[in-house]
Amino acid sequence: MSRLIRAEVRKVFSTKLWWRMLIGAFAFTALGAVATILGAGGTQSGIPPLSDPATQRQAFGASNAAVIFVLIIGIIGMTTEYRHFTSRPTFLIEPRRGRVVLAKLVTYASVGLVYSVLCAGLAVAIVVPWLSAKGVDVSLTSNGIPRTLATTVLSVAILGVIGVGLGVLVRNQIVAVIGGLAYLFVLEPLIRVIPYVKDAYKFLPGGANEALTQANTQPGSDLLNAWAGGTVLVCWGLLFAIMGTVLTVRRDIP
Fold first, then answer.
1. How far, in Å, CA of 10 to CA of 43, rounded?
2. Which of 33, 137, 167, 229 has the most Cβ atoms closer than 10 angstroms to its Cβ?
3. Looking at 83-87, 168-172, 244-248, which range is the least confident one?
4. What mean pLDDT is reported for the chain?
5. Domain map (residue ranges) of the chain
6. 213 touches 232 (CB < 8 A)
7. What is d(CA 154, CA 176) in angstroms, rounded to the nearest whole number?
8. CA count, 13 A, side-chain hemisphere, 163
């Protein structure tokens, strides 16, 4: 298994995709943190003042933007095998396909951890000095900030697993990436506001992620508590991992 994981790690770092996705994650993290700070206390933004613990958690939770890029890199990491027909030699070298998928799951969960830790560090580097310059007392050990940073790291890692599973379910790379993004930015937000089905939002990956991090929760949101949200998100990750493994074992090699 360690041999397979090392091979997957080499695949990740043998292309330019990993650092391009990392730059995108950095950009979105910085944008989210800056937008929260600049909009805090404004009448139009609806964001409470910077002294409010919820606003501070939202600023530090900007690192959760990495989920987008980890999801994409997880999808591409799996679908590339089918797009470029490298699945054939891969599965010939290791006929136990479940081990190959497991290696990918571990690899891209680890990539998610690295991305989220780096993005969390960037958020801290932006928020702490900026708030200090504004005379706002901020501590990395209070106001739920440690939990926000830790749960953000966990949620991003789980999205890496979901990305690999989605890549197995939808082998076409373009369809999988566009479908994944459309789900996150179109379908889930619609479900959140449509009567009769909006109660289901809290059990979906986006709602579970929001409940887990407690960073960008909208006022009046009907979400699970952090522990329940984390459990639901982990279950989604396990579901995609299991489906990905089972389908890979049963499907013919393209």
1. 50
2. 167
3. 83-87
4. 85
5. 2-250
6. no
7. 23
8. 32
Q: How far apart are CA 5 and CA 101, in angstroms?
A: 10
Q: Mean pLDDT, to the nearest integer, of 105-120?
A: 93
Mean pLDDT of 14-34: 92
pLDDT at 219: 52
Give the span between the Cα atoms of 38 and 86, in whole angstroms.
47
For 35, 60, 109, 138, 143, the CA distances from 57, given in Å and listed in that order, are 13, 5, 24, 10, 8
Band (pLDDT 50/70/90 cuts) for residue 122 is very high
Q: What's the half-sphere exposure (Cβ side, CA atoms, 13 Å) at 105?
A: 23
Closest CA to 224 of 242, 237, 211, 236: 211
| Pairwise CA distance, residues 242 & 135, whole Å | 50
Burial of 13 (0-12, 13-18, 19+ CB in 10 A): exposed
- Per residue in 8-18, pLDDT (tens digit) is 888 888 888 88
